[in-house]
Task: inverse folding
């Protein structure tokens, strides 16, 4: 699309969006604040979690870690515990690291410039733009999937959103409709994308910009956005041993590479002396963003004190029980397994 030719025709669209946002903004707790710490946490919490699913987690997190300093001084395992239920635990690990970075590099004061915010661990262009525009009057559009979708439809633009150049392309396109108040504009686009211009069945009749929307006037809304590449999920098989003795079982903490960083898991191998104690196995399927997991979990009920003690002595496993496991964060399928097997 020739941007210059349409620029003057579309500048009013952003203002129309702002007027709509003023009366229709979702009533969310973080909308009452301009505290960059809280805006940052909420942006990270709600990146992959629906608002109604994440709201309690967000409130609990902020209650326990009300500011950068409290978060930076907390133990990583406690931060992970407060992230329990939200998934994508690497986000919690990065939040914690970024809080420490703010304490050391910025004397505990949240940086106000887009470029500085971008340097913080785990913060990408979208979050840096959102925080700097909402809290500090920054002028960068917070381009995410909502922007791709709304702008593709608004301009009936068939630029491939799976292209590596999509971010730059749609950032430029956004500037055509972007008014002075970029913070509210970014939030208006978020709300429009999630409430009105939804991926499926958009509510075009209720849309504040439908008179300007080319896809709508061409009756081709479902043709946009255009996405050619599909990321193929990789199949991955995992094996675990749920090694129990009486009420206790064994766990260890994962490293921070690969999936499920720093979460707790069961042993992934056992010695031959322990094999006679296997009483069954179960396969659980679980989907991650780019992985299809098939997890076989063997239930091992050890009755020999020697076999149990030797195994613990040779490996660095922790002994826990159902109560102790509540204090730790496990990947969802393992968490479910613990709940189900110890329930009976
Ligand atoms: S008119 Fe429909 S397709 Fe166009 S921006 Fe609004 S909701 Fe999206």
Result:
């Amino acid at each position: 699309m020739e941007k210059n030719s349409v620029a003057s025709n579309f500048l009013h669209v952003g203002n129309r969006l702002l007027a709509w946002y003023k009366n229709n903004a979702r009533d969310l707790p973080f909308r009452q604040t301009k505290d960059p710490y809280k805006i940052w946490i909420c942006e990270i919490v709600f990146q992959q979690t629906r608002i109604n699913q994440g709201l309690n987690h967000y409130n609990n997190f902020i209650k326990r870690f009300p500011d950068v300093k409290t978060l930076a001084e907390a133990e990583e395992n406690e931060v992970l515990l407060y992230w329990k239920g939200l998934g994508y635990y690497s986000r919690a690990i990065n939040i914690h690291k970024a809080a420490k970075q703010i304490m050391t590099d910025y004397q505990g004061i949240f940086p106000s410039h887009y470029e500085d915010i971008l340097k913080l661990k785990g913060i990408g262009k979208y979050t840096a733009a959102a925080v700097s525009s909402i809290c500090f009057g920054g002028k960068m559009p917070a381009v995410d999937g909502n922007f791709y979708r709304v702008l593709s439809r608004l301009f009936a633009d068939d630029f491939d959103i799976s292209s590596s150049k999509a971010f730059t392309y749609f950032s430029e396109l956004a500037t055509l409709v972007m008014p002075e108040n970029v913070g509210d504009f970014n939030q208006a686009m978020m709300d429009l994308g999630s409430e009105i211009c939804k991926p499926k069945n958009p509510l075009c009749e209720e849309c504040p910009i439908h008179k300007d929307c080319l896809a709508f006037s061409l009756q081709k809304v479902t043709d946009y956005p255009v996405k050619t590449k599909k990321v193929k999920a990789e199949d991955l098989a995992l094996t675990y041993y749920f090694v129990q003795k009486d009420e206790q079982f064994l766990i260890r903490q994962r490293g921070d590479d690969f999936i499920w960083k720093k979460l707790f898991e069961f042993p992934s191998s056992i010695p031959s002396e322990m094999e006679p104690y296997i009483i069954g196995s179960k396969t659980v399927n679980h989907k991650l963003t780019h992985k299809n997991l098939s997890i076989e979990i063997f239930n091992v009920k050890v009755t020999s004190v020697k076999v149990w003690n030797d195994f613990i002595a040779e490996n660095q496993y922790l002994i826990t029980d159902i109560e102790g496991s509540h204090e730790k964060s496990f990947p969802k399928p393992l968490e479910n397994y613990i709940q189900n097997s110890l329930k009976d």
About this structure: The first helix runs from residue 3 to 24. The chain has 15 helices and six strands. Residues 234-343 form a domain with the Nucleoside Triphosphate Pyrophosphohydrolase fold (CATH 3.90.79.10).
